[in-house]
Backbone:
C-alpha cells in the first residue's frame, strides 16, 4: 500500500526547504593526483528536509498520517512536489499559460514524489503562540 499526503496540510515553509541528492558515485583513490569517480548505482534518491506550520487541526491530521497511515514512518507515500506542483506553467517569455482565456484560469504544473520517511523523525516546536512547526526529513525515491 502507498499512502497519499493529506491534501489539507499546507506546503512546506520556503526557508526550511533543503534538498540534497544521494551520492551515486564510488570514489577511486589514484596513486597521484585528484581522486577519480565512477557510478556506484544508476538511480539516486534525494534527501529533502522541510518544515510545515500547522494549526491544531492540521497537527492532528499530520500526526494521524505519520503514526497510523504510515505506521510510524514505515510506509511509503505520494506527496505533491512542493517545488513544482501548483505553480503556473509559463511560455519561454515567462508569461503564464491559461486553461481558458475568458476566465483567465492559469494552467498549473502537477508533479508528485514517491517518498519514504527519513532517519530524522518529525520534531515539533510551538510558533506564533498557537501554531506548531513540524520539521522532518524524507527520501524522494527515483
Residues:
Amino acid at each position: 500500500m502507498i499512502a497519499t499526503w493529506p491534501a489539507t496540510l499546507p506546503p512546506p515553509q520556503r526557508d526550511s526547504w533543503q534538498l540534497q541528492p544521494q551520492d551515486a558515485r564510488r570514489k577511486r583513490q589514484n596513486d597521484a593526483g585528484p581522486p577519480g569517480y565512477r557510478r556506484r548505482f544508476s538511480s539516486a534518491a534525494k534527501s529533502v528536509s522541510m518544515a510545515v506550520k500547522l494549526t491544531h487541526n492540521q497537527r492532528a491530521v499530520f500526526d494521524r498520517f505519520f503514526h497510523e497511515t504510515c505506521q510510524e514512518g514505515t510506509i511509503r507515500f505520494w506527496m505533491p512536489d512542493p517545488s513544482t506542483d501548483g505553480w503556473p506553467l509559463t511560455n519561454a517569455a515567462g508569461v503564464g499559460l491559461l486553461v481558458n482565456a475568458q476566465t483567465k484560469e492559469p494552467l498549473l504544473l502537477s508533479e508528485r514524489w514517491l517518498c519514504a520517511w527519513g532517519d530524522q523523525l518529525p520534531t515539533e516546536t510551538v510558533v506564533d503562540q498557537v501554531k506548531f512547526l513540524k520539521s522532518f526529513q524524507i527520501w524522494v525515491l527515483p
